[in-house]
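User: Structure please.
Assistant: Input sequence and predicted structure:
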Amino acid sequence: MINVFNAPPEGIQTAPHDMRIIAAGYQVSVREVDLTRVRDKDSLMLALLRGLALTQTFGHNWDALFDVLTDPEARPARFALVLCDYDHFRKRHAKLCAELEAVLLDAQRSATEAGRQLWVLAEEPEGQLRRW
């Protein structure tokens, strides 16, 4: 598998095996968001709050998520957001997933324009390789 950190971030990519070790070698900070228990937008926002280690002042909306992902004070210049159980989440919550993807990809473009890097990585079960 090609190492995603060798190239600029582009869309939602498959997380590499041994991701934390590889990310450390490329000086990429990593945070994981567990989507396993997401039922609706509220539980998604709580999963993001936990995964991104946000404070209770997080606005629990798409604009707030965009802001924390693109804020140079809140995120390192080289940052990877790993979406755990992403494929199942996509299948269970297609509309919610589409909204999340739109925000994540907008944040990725904005980060790139600001000279920063935001990888959005989907953690897949063993043996599945996929690119969105």
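The first strand starts at residue 12 and ends at 14.
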